Amino acid sequence: MDQGTIVDIAQKSLLTIISVSAPMLLLSLIVGLAVSIFQATTQIQESTLTFIPKILAVFAAILLFGLWMLRTLSEFTLDIYGNINLYIR
After folding, report:
1. pLDDT in tens, 28-87
2. DSSP assignment of 34-73, as one string?
3. Which of 8, 28, 66, 88 has the smallest count of CB within 10 Å of its CB?
4. How far apart are CA 43 and CA 13, in angstroms?
């Protein structure tokens, strides 16, 4: 296996990881920003107030995007296994 193949596999892996984790991270970021604005306007400085909405947002993202994330990871895995004979040379 040459260096180009290794770089290609690594690039596909990182792109898959970023695309699969992006919905959860973005939704958590938006909820965290909304809670921070709420805390700033009401001057409630409870540190545990941010965790529950973020956890619920990530859970909702998993429910909404779970099938797509599973399909994306399955396609990547099948692509790797399908081309394994090219990789082990």
Report:
1. 999 999 999 999 999 888 878 889 999 999 999 999 999 999 999 999 999 999 999 888
2. HHHHHHHHHT---GGGGHHHHHHHHHHHHHHHHHHHHHHH
3. 88
4. 43
Q: Look at residue 87 in the predicted model and tell me its pLDDT.
A: 83
Element (H, E) at 17: helix 3-42
Helix-strand-coil split of the chain, %, nearest 5: 90, 0, 10
DSSP 3-state assignment of 79?
Answer: helix
Q: What is the C-alpha separation between 85 and 71, in angstroms, rounded?
A: 23
Read off the pTM: 0.80
**Any idea where the domains of the chain sit in the sequence?**
3-87
- HSE of 43, CA atoms in CB hemisphere, 13 A: 0
Spatial distance between the Cα atoms of 21 and 83, rounded to a whole number of angstroms: 25
